[in-house]
């Protein structure tokens, strides 16, 4: 649907008193009946809301509405004006699905709308849908009855609705040492992506590299820390998720990037050249249990960006710091109510590990960043830890 274009069609409008209008709107939206692009209707003392249905609501649908909206209402078949694309991608996505179903002479049911994703990854012009998107029984039936050309039309419309040119759906993670991602291309062929974020260029093969855009606030925070002239070790560099912001925005003097996935390394090196920081980057390929010990005593800062836990390399990370100390950025998934106690326990563990290494440091948690909710009761957090020589000894 073109921006600004008004399309008129006959569809269902549900009416109630203006006093109950907000409640009716909420009920229709919850049931996925509401047409996100249809104009509301008004009459004296009444308000009507356009629905996605092209024929009167069934008895079952009316019963569902009555349960959510226990006030008088009526439905009419009326002329509906669609007012053009919404700026809300969720609305655009629902609207393109409704239009596609109409072209197949079908009606989008609640089962279809339940199969529409509420989240996705935008990697440049490639939109990556979750594994369960458009994959329930209703969608298997709808797509099974469509021609390839019709299915291609849907995927292209979905990509466009979400602001992309290509579309993929996440597949099951590969059962290998690297836990490589897999994607099913729905629109377009190439899985290589390039994009810029806060002036930092990234590039990688999305079918081989995991990259979570959901951690964008932490990526920006790390990139805002002044690291001028510092030597940094990134123990889990990936395709440069944190390495590149530290080099480009934090102006680190040099970053030693540890990574074992060849595809991630390819993306990291490409992006380092694209950003003009390749001379400030050393890539250490292989298992960081082997590569980190070779970096003992070189770093002012060590970044530990592995979830759910990076504890397996904490002692190596401490050993990477210069004898004068430095900083650790420790990522972890922690139960919400245990964040502070986890912080205290982490500092204690790091203190014990430092003494094993012969480092008489004072270790202190300087900041806890609550990045995002990982699951209903678990948070992704980052603990900024400072290690300095203990002046009370010696």
Quick overview of this protein structure:
With 394 residues, the protein is of the alpha/beta class.
Please, could you describe this protein's structure?
The structure is a single chain. This protein is of the alpha/beta class. It has 3 domains: 7-82, Alpha-Beta Plaits, CATH 3.30.70; 89-187; 214-389, Vaccinia Virus protein VP39 (Rossmann fold), CATH 3.40.50. Helices cover 30% and strands 29% of the residues. It is built from 12 helices and 17 strands. The chain has helices at 21-30, 59-68, 89-103, 110-114, 137-144, 148-161, 216-223, 243-248, 262-274, 288-291, 314-320, 339-356; strands spanning 7-17, 41-43, 46-50, 74-82, 121-123, 126-129, 166-170, 183-187, 192-197, 200-205, 231-234, 254-259, 281-285, 301-304, 326-335, 361-375, 378-389. The strands form 4 sheets. Strands 13-12-11-14-15-17-16 form a 7-stranded mixed β-sheet, with helices on both faces. A 4-stranded antiparallel β-sheet has the order 2-3-1-4, covered by helices on one side. Helix 3 (89-103) runs antiparallel to helix 6 (148-161). The longest helix has 18 residues, at 339-356. It is elongated. The N and C termini lie far apart (75 Å).
